[in-house]
Amino acid sequence: MRLIDREVTIPCSPLSAGVLQFFAEQTEACLDEDEVLVRFAVTFTEVGSYNCELGTIRGSKAAAQQIPSVFDFRHRGYATSDDFNCMLLVPTGIGAEIGGHAGDAGPVTWLLASICDNLITHPNVVNASDINELPANGLYVEGSTLCRLLLGTAGLQKVKSNRLLVVMDHRPDEPYIEELVVNSVNAARATYGLNCTRFLRLDPTFTTHAQYSSTGVAAGHVEDLELLIAALNNYKGDYDAVAIASTIDVPPNFHMDYFRSGGEMVNPWGGVEAMLTHAISLLYDVPTAHAPMVANKDIAHLETGVVDSRMAAEAVSISFIQCIFKGLMRSPRIVTRPEEIYRPGVISARDISCLVIPEGCLGLPTLAALEQGIPVIAVKENKNRMRNDLESLPWAPGQYFCVENYWEAAGVMAALKAGIAPESVRRPIELASIEDHKSAVAKSERDQLRLRGREKQQAR
Q1: How far is CA 337 from CA 6, 85, 340, in A?
Q2: Which is higher by pLDDT, 302 or 328?
Q3: Each residue of 397-418: pLDDT tens digit?
Q4: Which residues does residue 242 pair with via DSSP β-bridges, in sequence order?
């Protein structure tokens, strides 16, 4: 069984209602019979087409039957006002200026969390190798689960703690590397009470390879995934969350190249890690996170010198795994039964007050927020490899905000929390525009005619 990343080109559609359905139909038409989609993103948009990255499982009929479509959607109906819950995303492997390195979006997390009742984020934002400074009101949620939360097909239930299953590669040639993981588990148990109920060493094990796509986004593939799945199946019911430590194969020069790049090189490990955790979370409905094991002792003790601040957490870490232990320890339970998603105490799509993303990021979270009517705040300063014009999507009035930086994002969030129009605190205030009803109806009809004409032209 293989987990692969590949690129496809989809023809552009007129930007009308039903954008999510459009991408679902176009993407699923690109899949082979034995292929199951686990991750989707639009890396860039150009005239006439979308360039998309697909993460898929191949070679498993069981997985095909078990994993529902990642585009499945349930409209939330309405938004609750009991709490102000924000979702903060910095997609993995896109070379984000803030949050694309080693937990360097942590200060952003603390800033935005100060405005929220709950800040829902994902491992890439706060994972800093052996450091994880998630705020007390932060919820550590794996990427595919965030997508399902916004799509209305999953909910989150807070927990006191999780029973962790830790899985690591068997490294008979490098016992020192195994010992780092063992010592990390025991340190977590002794210092902050990690509940590790199972600790497995896989032999034989699956293999993970990192690479870059044609757009420079981190990608990769996983071979022999069935070996990990067999282990998880064998102990099903004994764990609430899964922590995986395995070696990711990269060219030897990548390690020093990364540290010497001054933050310019896209972290090569994150893309394939995200695909792997998406797949496991979708298969088992449990929080999942991955930490890369270093290939050998020489790499573990590289003399990096003083590095870019955003990478410094990696330069001072050895096992790289404490961050996922601290995150998974209290990661919320994933609720997927439709009758349970909207029960009291479960955070659902109805409870999400806004989504904060880097500008240009177009994937399932953005598409789901668009369909659900959830306000989206895009941050220009967080530059990245994705190139999409989010302004052109069919947002409802007052749903999309493009801001310069996270300071401004915090201001927009505060306005939304206060229930006031964010633009009302700026000057000048534009006068209210008056529309003639008959003219508005006529314009709408003309727009619909033009839309149908474009659809017919594209069909030819």
Answers
A1: 31, 22, 5
A2: 328
A3: 999 999 999 999 999 999 999 9
A4: 165, 288
| Residue 449 tokens, joined | 């005619």
Answer whether 277's CB lies under 8 Å from 290's CB. Answer: yes
Instruction: Give the angle 83-88-92 at the CA atoms, nearest 5°.
Output: 155
> What band does 460 get if pLDDT is binned at 50, 70 and 90?
very low
Phi-psi region of 437 (alpha: psi -120 to 50; beta: other; left: phi over 0): alpha
CA 220 – CA 92 distance, rounded (Å): 13
Q: How confident is the model at residue 449 (pLDDT cuts 50, 70, 90)?
A: low
Alpha carbons 364 and 39: distance in angstroms, whole number? 9
* DSSP letter, residue 276: H
Burial of 339 (0-12, 13-18, 19+ CB in 10 A): exposed
For 151: left if phi > 0, alpha if psi spans -120 to 50, otherwise beta; the answer is alpha
Residue 456 has pLDDT above 70, yes or no: no
Which SS3 state, helix, strand or coil, does residue 289 take? strand
Spatial distance between the Cα atoms of 164 and 185, rounded to a whole number of angstroms: 10
Name the 3-class secondary structure at 24. Answer: helix
DSSP for 26-62, please give it: HHHTTS-TTEEEEEEEEEEEETTEEEEEEEEEES-HH
**Where exactly are the structural domains of the chain?**
2-66, 73-435
Confidence check: pLDDT of 390 > 60: yes
Report whether 394 contacts 367 (CB < 8 A): no
User: What's the Rg (C-alpha) of the chain?
Assistant: 22
- CB proximity list for 215: less than 8 A, separation 6 or greater: 7, 43, 44, 51, 53, 385
Q: What is the pLDDT of residue 18?
A: 87
Residue 41 identity (one-letter amino acid): A
DSSP string, 403-438: ESSHHHHHHHHHHHHHTS-GGGGSSSPPPPP---HH
Which residues fall within 8 angstroms of residue 147, CB to CB, at 6 or more apart? Answer: 70, 363, 364, 365, 368
By CB neighbour count within 10 A (0-12 exposed, 13-18 middle, 19+ buried), where does 274 fall? Answer: buried
pLDDT digit string, tens, across residues 117-153: 999 999 999 999 999 999 999 999 999 999 999 999 9
